[in-house]
Every structure is written in structure tokens, then in C-alpha cells.
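Interim report to the steering committee. The following record documents the input for MFS transporter (481 residues).
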Amino acid sequence: MSSLTENAAEAVKRPQERTYARWAALVVLCAGTLMTILDGNIVTVAMPAIQSDLGFSGPGLAWVVNAYLIPFGGLLLLAGRLGDLVGRKRMFTTGLAVFTVASVLCGLATSQGLLIAARAVQGVGGAMTSAVVLGMLVALYPEPREQVRAISVFSAVGAAGGALGTFLGGALTQALGWHWIFLINLPIGVVAWLAAVRVLAPERGAGLGKGADYPGAALVTGALMLLVYVIIGVGDLGPTATLLLAGLTAALFTAFVVRQARAERPLLRLRLFRSRLLTGANAVQILMIATMYGFQFIGALYLQRVLGYDELTTGTAFLPAPIAIGLLMLGLSARTIGRLGAYRVLLAGLVLITAGMALLSRAPVGGSYVTDVLPPLLLLAAGFAAAMPALTGLAMSGARDEDAGLASGLFNTTQVVGGSLGLAVLSTLAASHTDGLLAHGAEQVGATAEGYQLAFRTASVIAVGALVLAAVVLRPRPERP
């Protein structure tokens, strides 16, 4: 009788242990992701301090962000494939280690070159970590209701990371110096790595013998890096050098496409682009993220360079946006999309984003946060909270079941590409216009404000482009009888 009782107790205990293990694994995955999200936001507020300390030029300062984003975006597809081959736990833990070590190097950097190089290594680690997280979540929670709950928690952590990043960036920079926005990743990374090794279940990959398209990864990463370099340096390179480098960029992208068409195991199956929804959604996302990321970068500079905010006040000023995005995404987006449809919700979100950028384009020299910054900030937050889940649903609905993982990787990649290109274009425009006005005798703060106004107007045009493209390409088509 006692053995039967013990067996029954064990039967009850095993599901409880399994539930605990899965939620512990979810916490670890969220912690690893939190680091990469923090890093994307925490740097923005510290930009002026980094520029002043290391002597970056206006356009060159964008490389503090782009040096991270380009390898991150360029390597997501390859990192996801390698995760399938060597095991996703191994890829995740290795990525955490690389990211943490690179963060320490960023914090210790004393020159522009060292900081940019360390940021690039951070991007590699971020790609290794991020590429496998969603696949691990789906494997942990195969049951639909539990999966939705887990992904909701994961999304909430992402939104919290955005809010925490802007605030921590300002607080750490003002209290301890900009180096600590990177050094803070050391304790988080060590704890997350130790927990991941202990908590995440080991898994066997398919084996490196199955192959991965390394030449394809090299081509697309090189093309993306060169493209952003051309955009940032267009004012300094001269017309001849710009045309030559633009031609080389086009050649690298062409070689990548040819490689994908002929490779036995391509990094990106070109048949994905036959889907109108998948292709259109990715194109819309590039424009939308270019608008949003450019706003975050230029907006932080406007608050500090024009309105005179310190780092902590700037970080606090941005808090309403990620908080509103997180609350609206979790509380309203799913129900609204279910009621109105993804297409209508996407268009409404893009209209709000366009309106928010149009309001910001007036950003005056003597502006007020309450009247000139907060209203467009909330419009942008509401628009993004509506548009992003709808756009994701449309993109994934255009992929076959067997291509879902690859489509997810592509969507993540175009998100990074959009952010990088938007940052490059808008920061270059703002700096060039400001320099032109200063050369004609304009006052520093006024010229800086006008440069940012031009960037915001350009972002408004980009948002209109995203709206028109979505309205035309993603419009639902009547089913054929």
C-alpha cells in the first residue's frame, strides 16, 4: 500500500516539476532577451555623452547603433539555421557568453574603433541568442493556450525592456557615466548563462554535416553593412566613391540572390517571396521600423541638444511610449484584430504613426514636453501597438507551415534592416542640414532644431509610404468561388 501511495505522489509531483521547469526555462529565455532589448534602447539616451567623450561626428555617431544592428540583422538567418544543426540550447548559451563579454569590452572602450568593434561582436551574440528563442518557446509550450500565455509574458518583458532601457540609460549615464550602460550587462549575463546551463533542457541538433549556407550569410551581411556605410558617408565620400560603393552593394545583393537560387541548402528560400502577404508585410515593416527607430534616435537628441534635458530626464521622458505599447499590445491588440481584422488595424496604426511624426516635425527651439513631445509620443506608441501585431499576423499568414520558422527569421531580419537604414538616413539628413545652416551663420541650437525637423518630416514621408504600400499590397482579396 505504501508503495502505491508513493507512486501516486510521484505521479502528482512529476507534472508539477515539469510545469516549474518550463516556467523556469521561460524566465531564463526572457532574461536573455531582456539584455538584447535593453541594449537597443539604453544606448540611445547616452549618445551625446559618448559623442562628447570619444569625439564622434554626427553621422559617425550612428555607427554606435548600426555596428550592433547590422551583424545582428545579417546573422539572424544563419544563427537560426546553426541552432537547428548544433542544438538551440548550445546556440543560446554561446550567444549569451559572446554578448556578455562584448558588453564588457564596450564598457571598457576608450576609442571610437574599439567601441564600434565591440558593438559588432555584441550584434553577433545578440543574433545567436535571439534567433532561437521563439523556437524554444514553441517547443516548451506546444499546447495552444499555454503557448499564447507564454508568448504574452515574453512580449510583456520586451515592452518592459524598452521602458527600462530608456530610463536606465539616462540614470546610469548621469550617475556613473556612459560606460555603465554596457557594464550592467555583466551581472545579468552571468546569472542568465548559469541559469540557462542548469535549467534549459539539452537537445541534439541535426549535426553540422547537414550544412549551412555560410557564403550566403557572408554575402548578405557584407551587403547590408556596405549599404549603411554608403548612406552614412554619402556627404563625405564624394559622388564617384558613392556610386562605386553603391554598385558594389548591388553586386553583393545580386550575388546573394543568385547563391540562394542555386545553393543546395539556401539560407533564404526564394519561394517565400512568391507570397504577396509575406513580401508586402516585410516591405511595410522596413518603412515602419525606419520611421520608429529614427524617431527614437533623433527624438532623444532633440530633447538633449535643443530642449537641454539631461540624460535621466530624457530617459524618463521616453517612458510613456514603451509602457503604452506594452499595455496596448497585451490588453487590446489581439481583441481588436479579431474584431476588425488585421488589415484595418494595421492601416489605423500607420495613420496614427504618420500623424505622430507630422506633429513632431514642428519640434520648435523653445518647445515644451507636455505640448510638443508627449502628444506625438503617445500617438506613435498607440500606432505601433496596433500596427505591429497586425503586421506580424499578416506576414506569418502568408507562409506555409514548413516555412514558418524561416518566415519568422526573415521578419526579424527586415525589422533590424529597417531600423538600421532609418537611423542612417535620418541622422545623416539631420546632420547635413544642420551643418549647412551653420555654414551660413545660423545659431547652433536653431540650426540643430531645423536639422531634426527635416529628419522628422522625412520620417513622416516614410510613414506615408508604409501606409500606401500596406493599403495597396496587403488589401484582402475576395476568395475565388
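Residues 1-13 have pLDDT under 50 and may be disordered. The committee is asked to note this result when reviewing the revised timeline.
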